[in-house]
Amino acid sequence: MTRKRHATATDVARLAGVSQSAVSRAFTPGASIAEETRARVAEAARQLGYRPNAIARSLTTRRSRIIGVAASYLQNHFYPDVLEALSRGLQARGYQMLLFMPDAGRHADPQLQEVLAWRVDALILASTTLSSALADQCQAAGIPVLLFNRTSRAPSVSSVTGENLRGGRLIAEFLVASGHRRLGFLAGIENSSTSRDRESGFCGWLQENGHPPPLREVGLYQFEEAAAAARRLLARPDRPDAIFCGNDHMATAVAEVARHEFGLRIPRDLSLVGFDDTGPARWPSFSLTSFSQPVQPMVDATVALVCEMIEDPATPTRHEVVRGELVVRGSARMPPEGCVSLAEQLVWRPVRNDITG
Amino acid sequence: MTRKRHATATDVARLAGVSQSAVSRAFTPGASIAEETRARVAEAARQLGYRPNAIARSLTTRRSRIIGVAASYLQNHFYPDVLEALSRGLQARGYQMLLFMPDAGRHADPQLQEVLAWRVDALILASTTLSSALADQCQAAGIPVLLFNRTSRAPSVSSVTGENLRGGRLIAEFLVASGHRRLGFLAGIENSSTSRDRESGFCGWLQENGHPPPLREVGLYQFEEAAAAARRLLARPDRPDAIFCGNDHMATAVAEVARHEFGLRIPRDLSLVGFDDTGPARWPSFSLTSFSQPVQPMVDATVALVCEMIEDPATPTRHEVVRGELVVRGSARMPPEGCVSLAEQLVWRPVRNDITG
DNA sequence: CTGAAAGCGCTTACAG
DNA sequence: CTGAAAGCGCTTACAG
């Protein structure tokens, strides 16, 4: 049994009694073709089960209408949600998604070469970065690159992120306002921009307001690593009474360890705050207070920006920051004031004397 | 700023002082080319940042080395895990993954047309099916189709699944052995083969052994739907004291509702059993007893089978069923006997007089 | 509105 | 081992 050949435009042309160019036009929206011709072609195509070959089309148009997407950390619920929204958004704009999954904590470089061979129209890297060599290569080849939930040290790569810095600051203020003084911070991947920004927001606010730096552990944005870090943190004689976890995924790990291994009650014995506001963190069992990174707005911004970059290669580098809220639930002691209802949620909006905050 | 052109084989040939064919050979493993020529080409390619264009290659070879992958229900942790394993497996065999996400509970048909335009070498559909019209179209075009965690009513489409039927039967036996008599079943998508098979295994065993059928609700494999179903089930005067949930994802929803809305203790007031053995279900808070669908073996079988189908179009239809175990944890009352340790886990291996079971 | 023809960037017999 | 040439299946000026 040999592999069957797909019908080609030439086959259809022969059957419809028109030229091959006419067949092509019949499948090109806006092409100049008589309605009757189009109908004849459509009928012939139907009979033969013809569909234009996207590979051949891409070769001639030099636009693949494929976008390379990198994603890692899919155990963190945030990313499956992002992937679904991204798939929908790109599909709606007529793009396909070539997905690859770099190893967690590493550059996307190795697999990227394979993806670039496909002459993707753009690259979206979620929770990964690329080496600056690769960034240069993409730049030289004119391939737009967009980082999602990361920024690059090379400032010329555009990005879409949440409010990592403001979130970190607000969480510090929130925990202090709740009366906590023995704070802990659980870092994600240490050289990821999100972890660094959240930490520097958190520690920055503490320092500026005369508080000592938090105890610190590293959870690498992974469940098991975070659980191990929690064990170290909670076993200390001076264990923290509040922990800011670099994301919700790690916060759930910490909650599990705190309750089931240390017998702690949350938030009575330990306050927990996360980042992302997704997935299990919202379930009653965790009811996590968390700074939100709203998936749909972030993905909308990503899709819009990436399309703009494709359409106009001269689009300047942009770093879009999508607004979030400190969503207040039950995992952290509440401050005496500042919690307001917003869209059926409780969020924290501290009243301040100063303008900046 | 106009879009830069990628260097082509012809550019490289010119620089290296060889023919364009030589350049092609230099990038074709196993092609007959002098080592010195290859080196000259490699150097020229490096200078120009040349990478063979996969689109052009696919057009001539008529093999895209792209596999179309459909996945839905990414909120269910099982699928992100599957996606990661699949990505790794396909990558290792030199395939790229064109991902699309059909709407939950629907056929993959609409987006499939777009994917087929890319002349994918095969199609893997996870948690979806395709219409029989589409199945025929793929068959006619010689495109291998593989269903993952589903079977098709059209028996000619190959599949890889877990032991849905045996799992359902075993869970019935397990719950009855634990002394439960008021059973409930929470269905997933009713016309999905997994849900039907699990249910018929469960109900089949009950019937064969003289037990009444379980109370029944539908959760559509979605968290919120499952929570709503749990509310209906648990509000009944004759509420079940054990529920077999069509998968772990729904089981966690039921656990949340049972505990936080009905104040039930698990397993004292209610036993819960799931299916999949993944994700949050394993966390101490849920500690779900669940029939496993081991991701890696299932994905290994999928990758092996799909490659075989690509290599040899005459590969006959196959329905691979990957062995699972009833993993015993704390969410369901334990039967007096039959639990054995296996690979650091407790699994249920009932002792039987009869041979079949 | 339509067709003939060039060209997209490769691979692969074929002849040497 | 190497090069010239055909061909993969389209799109798109160009001329009519």
UniProtKB/TrEMBL annotation, chains A, B:
UniProt entry tagged with the keyword Transmembrane: no
InterPro entries referenced in this protein's UniProt entry, alphabetically: HTH_LacI, LacI/GalR-like_sensor
ATP-binding as UniProt keyword: no
Cross-referenced Pfam families: LacI, Peripla_BP_3
Keywords on record: DNA-binding, Repressor
GO MF annotations, alphabetized: DNA binding
HTH lacI-type domain span: 7-61
The protein's name in its UniProt record: LacI family DNA-binding transcriptional regulator
